[in-house]
Write a structure and sequence with these properties.
With about 240 residues, this protein is α+β, with helices and mostly antiparallel strands. The protein is built from six helices and 15 strands. This is DUF1989 domain-containing protein.
Length: about 240
């Protein structure tokens, strides 16, 4: 299958772009230990966006993998995960802030280090959201691709340091026209003392038409209802 477009998001980098429905969005870690934070919006109505609580409770899970969908706050499917080498992507760890980054890795500034300064997820997202006419009020929970975070028996959140391997990939299929916003910054719960950011390759390809036995469609009854809501949405705006 031919790649329509590709790029590499370097350590600390960011990217945002509109992607039409029916595309494959493939992410590949170039080294072990990657973390790529993702926000997802309806490109035609930016008030509709990924809803973490609804996504998790509808699919009886606290993490995402193949077969799961990223549902919007309007009960529709923004994207489905159609391929996954890792089996677990973090939905609860969040993203780094400036204060967190300075406290953990040492204070750095652009004025001192130019492009080598240590960026935070919050700042990266703020910049990319501004490009689409949004701001800090539009910040929301993220999916941290390539990271595993779980809650232990005492309820403490734990990051698994060796979860993501070099060359691991995960592929999303866009079910709506979406605005994807990406930040290649550390998972806030990553215990490593150095700034752990790994370049991630991003590729966009054409998706094949959905079949009736599709994994995402049939994962749960709630998934099918969300897909039906999505199909109705597009049928009515044609």
């Amino acid at each position: 299958m031919d790649v329509i477009w590709n790029t590499v998001i370097e350590a600390g980098g960011k990217w945002s772009g509109r992607i039409s429905r029916g595309k494959l969005l493939r992410f590949t870690a170039t080294e072990a230990g990657a973390n790529l934070a993702l926000m997802l919006y309806n490109a035609d109505d930016l008030t509709e966006r990924y809803n973490m609580p609804d996504t998790l409770k509808a699919q009886y899970t606290a993490h995402l993998t193949a077969g799961h969908t990223l549902m919007s706050d309007n009960g529709r499917v923004l994207a489905g995960i159609v391929q996954d080498d890792l089996g677990w992507h973090d939905t609860i760890g969040g993203y780094t802030t400036r204060a967190h980054t300075d406290a953990k890795y040492g204070k750095t500034t652009y004025q001192q280090l130019r492009n080598e300064w240590l960026r935070s997820g919050q700042e990266n997202f703020a910049v990319e959201l501004t490009r689409s006419g949004m701001g800090l009020r539009d910040m929301m929970p993220v999916v941290n691709l390539f990271s595993k975070v779980y809650c232990d028996d005492d309820g403490a959140m734990r990051h698994v340091p060796d979860h993501g391997s070099a060359g691991a990939s995960v592929t999303l299929r866009t079910e709506m026209d979406v605005l994807a916003v990406l930040s290649n910054t550390p998972n806030p719960l990553d215990a490593r003392k150095h700034y752990p950011s790994v370049p991630v390759k991003v590729e966009i390809l054409e998706a094949e038409p959905m079949r009736e036995d599709d994994l995402c469609l049939n994962h749960r009854a709630e998934n099918r209802r969300a897909y039906e809501n999505t199909w109705s949405y597009y049928a009515l705006i044609k």
